[in-house]
Amino acid sequence: MPPRILVYSATAGWRHDSIEPSIEALKAKASSINVQFDFTEDQSQFTDENLAKYDAILFLNNSGIILDDTGKAALQMYLNLGGNTIGVHCASDALRDTPFFGKQIGAYFDYHPDIQESVVDVVDSTHPSTKMLPAHWRLFDEMYNFQSDPRDVGAKVLLTADESSYSDPQTRRFDHGTPHPVAWYQERGAGVEPGGIAGRSWYTSLGHCIEIWSDELFLAHVLGGITWALESKTTRAFNHDGKVGNAA
């Protein structure tokens, strides 16, 4: 059976109008990477029993406090059992009251300048989520600033912002490291508790506009991140001894 992914797009703050198009785009691409997506905005699905069915959870443009205490505990257990995570765009603006989630994503969002054409530089062109990208990728999207450096929790940066390619009149309040991180991965997700089995974490801050979700290059970036996260060998997708994942 294919790897199974729970796509969670609940919001409790700002809601992007690209959420629905992004869901449709992922549905259309599921067979191309041989995965099964289950889509929900129902936080009651975050239980130990239900999450155990999934090889990864994809946090899609979430905002605010999107889980209650029961859901947060179930997510922590899922991570401790080797579950993988993928975060897209505004996912870094969710669950600010939950430090392990911030570590698993890599960093919390701070602010962004006005959306404009910008250039993103590829730091690692060998990763499945970047190997298809041009070295200097010009796109129309938001360039996020973060409240911390994802490298501090062990993340490896894949994409960085060319800050000379766009205008940001605001004064940065936090140090998110240099060069400016845009997308990254963690081989061992930092949200796992001591003694847990750390799965993988992948995050991209790109994905704001409706239009970008019909851009084949951007979709290849996201799909590459998903396939990489699934290959952690910590879930049943690639390890029959995994404690979580699709056991059908």
TrEMBL record:
- Which SUPFAM superfamilies does this UniProt record tie to the protein? Class I glutamine amidotransferase-like
Residues forming the ThuA-like domain are: 4-229
Taxonomic superkingdom: Eukaryota
TM stretches of this protein: none
Q: Please give one Pfam family short name.
A: ThuA
PANTHER family listed in its UniProt record: GALACTOSE-BINDING DOMAIN-LIKE SUPERFAMILY PROTEIN (PTHR40469:SF2), SECRETED GLYCOSYL HYDROLASE (PTHR40469)
This one is known as ThuA-like domain-containing protein
This chain's source organism reads Paxillus rubicundulus Ve08.2h10
